[in-house]
Amino acid sequence: MPRPLRDELAEELAPWRAAGLHRVLWDVESPQAPHIRIDNRELLNFSSNDYLGLANDPVLKQAATDALHQFGVGAGASRFISGNLAPYRQLELALAEFKNQPAALVFGSGYAANVGTIAALVGPGDVVILDKLNHASIIDGARQSGATIRVYPHGDLAKLERILASVTTRARRVLIATESVFSMDGDLAPLAEICALKQRFGAWLLVDEAHATGLYGQNRRGLAEPLGLENQIEVTIGTLSKAFGCVGGYVAGSLELIEYLRHRARSVMYSTALPPAMVAAATAAVRFVMSPAGHARRDQLWRNVSLLKHGLAAVGIPNTSRSAIIPIIVGDETKALQLAQTLLDAGIFVPAIRYPTVPRGKARLRVTVTAVHSSDDIQTFLSALAEALRAHPGGVIEPAALSSSRA
Ligand SMILES: *Cc1c(COP(=O)(O)O)cnc(C)c1O
After folding, report:
1. Active site annotation includes 271
2. Is 134 in the pocket of ligand 1 (CB under 6 A)?
3. Under 8 Å between Cβ of 279 and 75
4. For ligand 1, atom 14, which residue shows the shortest CA distance?
5. Which of 43, 159, 279, 318 has the fewest CB atoms within 10 Å distance of its CB?
6. Dihedral sign, CA of 230, 236, 241, 247?
7. ∠ at Cα 51 (85, 338), nearest 5°?
8. CB of 185 shorter than 6 A to ligand 1
9. Among 241, 246, 247, 366, which residue has the most ligand 1 atoms within 8 Å of its CB, making it the best to mutate?
10. pLDDT in tens, the chain (407 residues)
11. Peptide bond into 318 cis (omega under 30)
12. 3-state secondary structure of 151
């Protein structure tokens, strides 16, 4: 006879707390912005992926409000069943135009886009090759697909090449899947080299630009744009939840890819469509990112990243990040929590990221900066961080030490 569920789970939960691995939900009483309210206290927010400050933008809110009045709240069913409300077509056309691709397909989330797409494109008998630090949604898609999963150490091109050489003669389909900007380390995938390898071995490439879209390239399409690789990448994944400030995910690519996914991607086929108001807000976000104002906002983001990185170097935390994600590696889970708590006491909200989001012993403060932080906000954060590090000495591990230890 199994023990009562509650007893069983309580027993499993207790050591998580002891190991500093418990998670709490902070109730935020304000919109996402550089300044948020928690427990009636105003806090400086360095936790959000709202890189361009669009989550509470008046133009997006107006677009959502208009669509709310015209189309109501719920979508009714999957788009294949209850019909494609007008805002969806507008969003998919806008995304295809923005990404400079023939077509796009919107999913309920970036998570759903990865899971549905990967599981649709490969299956038993195929091979999917993953970077060790890929996002959970890529891993879950690979697992769900039933394809053989091969993993290379983070950014290890030699190992990727060996895997490709060993599988391409036997496997029916070979798909490499990687993030362009890694979500918890903020570093960049060697996309040009990966592209060259996949061309040489006849594999397909899926690139998840979740943290790069809106940020990189003359047209802000993502990291593949400045590298000139967009026409070589078969499948591009993106999310509407980060720089676009909304929620939802998408795939952009050929007409055939999008048509195929409409018939095979279970996470969009069997899930109710996003609310039309959110879809309209996302369209406004895409239009903003494409506009000269979006260009200026993006440039402001990079100025803020640079300010933050220089400030961190000045307090003894050199950083090699080339994105808006700046991890401060602490290592020990409890120590990361203590640092986050000290910062919280000083009015700064930064999450302590721990296992299982990152490997055990690689806990970190994950600092994200946005275009709408002021330089005062950044200075206040840097002073509080310097103070917190004095209170918890010996807490920070150099990024270089981290990458050698995880290789
Ligand atoms: C956030 C994220 C996702 C998931 O996107 P959501 O829209 O939040 O579901 C997918 N891939 C990567 C790399 C991410 O960072």
Report:
1. no
2. no
3. no
4. 210
5. 318
6. positive
7. 120
8. no
9. 241
10. 788 999 999 999 999 988 888 888 889 999 999 999 999 999 999 999 999 999 999 999 999 999 999 999 999 888 888 888 889 999 999 999 999 999 999 999 999 999 999 999 999 999 999 999 999 999 999 999 999 999 999 999 999 999 999 997 777 899 999 999 999 999 999 999 999 999 999 999 999 999 999 999 999 999 999 999 999 999 999 999 999 999 999 999 999 999 999 999 999 999 999 999 999 999 999 999 999 999 999 999 999 999 999 999 998 887 888 999 999 999 999 999 999 999 999 999 999 999 999 999 999 999 999 999 999 999 999 999 999 998 887 666 655 444 433 32
11. no
12. strand
Rounded-to-integer distance, Cα 119 and Cα 129, Å: 13
- For 212, phi then psi, to 5°, come to -115, -25
Q: How far apart are CA 188 and CA 333, in angstroms?
A: 25
109 lines ligand 1 (CB under 6 A): yes
Type of residue at 404 = S
CA 97 and chain centroid, separation? 22
Q: Is 117 in the pocket of ligand 1 (CB under 6 A)?
A: no
Q: What is the pTM of this model?
A: 0.94
**DSSP letters spanning 279-297:** HHHHHHHHHHHHSHHHHHH
242 counts as catalytic = yes
Do 370 and 50 meet the contact criterion of CB atoms below 8 Å apart? yes
Q: Which atom of ligand 1 is nearest to the CA of 111?
A: 9
Strands, sheet with 35-38, edge to edge from the N-terminal-most edge strand: 35-38, 41-45, 348-349
- Amino acid present at 46: F
